[in-house]
Amino acid sequence: MKYKVHFEKKTVIISDNPEDAGDLPFYHFSYANVPKLLFRLEKDEFRGLFFYHFDPDKAWKHFLQFFDVIHSAGGVIYNDEGKVLFIYRRGFWDLPKGKTEPGETLEQTALREISEETGLKSVEIIKPLPETYHVFWEGGRRKIKITQSKGRESLEPTGTEGIERLDWLSPSDPRLEDRLFNNVKELLSAAGWPREGMQN
Question: What is the 3-state secondary structure (H, E, C) of 114-146?
């Protein structure tokens, strides 16, 4: 069991398997000064961190105490050509997603956010995708966003909501180079993109 958290281009891993560390700096979670290490990570002293714990779930619950936690949901949306619908905002290509509102299920959030950000109304949930975690700063506070996405098939987008642009892109599209967040790459891989036999 492991958790992988993205700090822009850097990664923090919490795991019970020492081999997951690779060449990242290795710390035992129970004895580490986690806030200080996260501060040093953000100051680019490390390119990532590995925390070992025999019970990663227990360590994860403690790790979350250092953040404001935000839950969100969205989707990986395919068309009939196997291309994925991306939204472009703040200099990166991203997937349609947004914060969960009180009383909503993750499925309801995903459908609502896809509709609000792309104009799509008829989408079909194929399968859930793994949760992803990424950290950002807002209002002087460090926040961690936990995103649950769904795989879907859908039609052409019909509208936008505060998005610079929308486009169906193939894996080889040069616009994606260095313009994808690492957690988005993870979701695309989990969704099986590119699809077998599709044309780049």
Answer: HHHHHCCCCCEEEEECCCEEEEEEECCEEEEEE
pLDDT band at 178 (very low <50, low <70, confident <90, very high): confident
Q: Both tokens of residue 155?
A: 């039609």
pTM of the model: 0.79
Q: Is the pLDDT at 154 greater than 80, yes or no? A: no
199: tokens are 């044309």
Strands 68-78 and 141-153: parallel
Residue 24 and residue 13 in contact, taking contact as beta carbons nearer than 8 Å: yes
| Cα-based torsion angle of the residue sequence 44, 140, 101, 129 in order, rounded to the nearest 10 degrees | 0
What's the rounded Cα separation, in Å, for the pair 162 and 167?
15
Full set of structural domains in the chain with CATH: 2-66 (no CATH), 68-190 (3.90.79.10)
Q: What is the pLDDT of residues 46-94, one digit of tens each?
A: 999 999 999 999 999 999 999 999 999 988 888 888 889 899 988 889 9
Q: What angle do CA 42, 32, 38 make, to 5 degrees?
A: 10
In angstroms, the first-to-last Cα distance of the chain is 34
